[in-house]
Amino acid sequence: MRRPGGGVRGLARGLRARLVVAFLLVAALSALATAALTFREARTAILQRTQDTAVNALRGQVNSQVTDLAMPPGEAALAKLSKGLTVAGEASQHWIVHTRYKDGPLIPGVRTEDEDVIGSGVQEKVRNGVPAVQRVESGGRPWLVVGLPVTYQNTTTTSGLEVYARVPLREDDANVQALVNAAQSGALLSVGLAVVPALFAARSVLRPVRELRRGAQQITDGALDTRLKVTGRDELAELSRTFNGMAAALEENVAELRRMEANSRRFAADVSHELRTPLAAMTAVVDVLDEDAATLDPDTAYAVRLISEETGKLARMVEDLMEISRFDAGAAALHLDEVDVAETVRKTLQARNWQDRVAATLPEGVRARLDTRRIDVVVANLVGNALRHGGEPVRVSLRADDERLLIEVADRGPGIDPDVLPHVFDRFYKADAARARSEGSGLGLAITMENVRLHHGTVRAANSPDGGAVFTVELPLCAGGGEE
Predict the structure, then answer these.
(1) Is residue 281 domain-shared with residue 412, that is, in the same domain?
(2) Segment holding 251, helix H or strand E
(3) What's the pTM value of the predicted model, to 2 decimals?
């Protein structure tokens, strides 16, 4: 049975979806972290290789071309050196070389629009005799600036000649971008491939949960011998063992309760049955004594009438016990006839001489298939309860539509305590402890409810807004399911 709130929203809130999402998030974070570390290391390696290659190439070209340079060089010689160095590395490094002597101007090998790409920081280091490397942005393009101080041969003394090379990093950027694309593709592929193990993991985790739900539903449906198969030693396996222990204890307790309930029902049925014979004899004797009570002395007459009254109560109680026992045993049967409902209710009131104490609103022409004996019990119990515990006037009304029949019994008493309302149809329930020995058996309303149920109807109790209690019996116009 599906729970409410299914569909896409229910699936999104389900444990399977959350497990798959969590698994995919972990896979995605792992893939992204791995891709980020790989990208960083690869980018650093690419740029470092480019930097080392450019520095070594520039140093080699400078060493080969400055040997014949006259010192101090003039601007023409510096221009020639710059051009020669630029041409020498144009094919492999695509660089542009600038030269300068001491505090003179930078002289490029090729005239370009961004002559100021060589930063002051690099120039300051080279002027101090320290080779320098810097990555810069110019004209929207990345550059590697390499600066070398030229020293005299076989010495560490600077000659005052400075050489700078601007190396474009377009190819390195392309390689780095290719790495980024590869990392993204790899991360997406990893997440995509993670769906399969995620679904498998979710299924393996949810299988015991589904079994638990199935077992709980079977126990709810009454299959108390349900047990789960326990595999493994994890927390879910332990939960299954606990479930099996609970189910075994529940089955044992329910079996014991059913045994005790069956014994109590059998006891009540046996006792009431055994009491019928002596009660019949007692009733016959009491009836004889009751007829002669007028000829007896007052004390004896009072005792005879008291015995007669108590014997009647006992007889009614035994009959009620036997009736409730029939319901418990499933032996109660309906004997349906099509009757005039108003006439049936009217006969119930007349048989008990209640017609002068009860206001009846009974429209004629309402017919239904009912068991007249059981409907007589229902009306008699409700009206008698209203007369004893409610307040007069008691009103009985009858209504019907195309499908149902309503019989309503209302009184003008103090009503029913809200705490008592849920229990008024319970067996032997009495709201007032002071009434523990009333003339009722405590089974009248319970028998009423069983008779109404036998007709596939309902009975309910409520308090009227105008005061007093209201009992409403609702029956189908064509009650069925019983024996004819």
Answers:
(1) no
(2) helix 235-291
(3) 0.49
